Amino acid sequence: MPDQTEQQRRQTRQAAIVIAVAFLGWMGVSFLGGQLGLPVRYAFLADFAALAALAWALIVLFRVWRQRQQGE
Questions:
Q1: Per the UniProt record, which residue ranges are transmembrane (predicted)?
Q2: Phi/psi zone of residue 38: left (φ > 0), alpha (ψ -120 to 50 degrees), beta?
Q3: N or C: lower Cβ tally within 10 Å for the chain?
């Protein structure tokens, strides 16, 4: 089982990185959009991209959690 445990750790780490990058990117685009006066559609695009990244991370974390529950 060490292979599976290492894979779960890798997936969890990857999901955490995606969450951090999504939030930082979302905040950055929101800030720059306001400073540069970009159209609102770019803010919506950034919002939807962040939501998609967070949904993906949630699905990955849920799958890792389910695998750990089944492994016990």
A1: 15-36, 42-65
A2: beta
A3: C
**Residue listed under structure tokens 């990857």:** 14
DSSP codes, 2-70: HHHHHHHHHHHHHHHHHHHHHHHHHHHHHHHHHHHT--HHHHHHHHHHHHHHHHHHHHHHHHHHHHHHH
State the amino acid at position 40 in one-letter form: V
CA distances from 37 to 2, 7, 40 (A): 51, 43, 9
Element (H, E) at 71: helix 40-71
What is the spatial distance between Cα 24 and Cα 27, in angstroms, rounded to a whole number?
A: 5
Both tokens assigned to 31 = 């800030």
3-state secondary structure of 1: coil
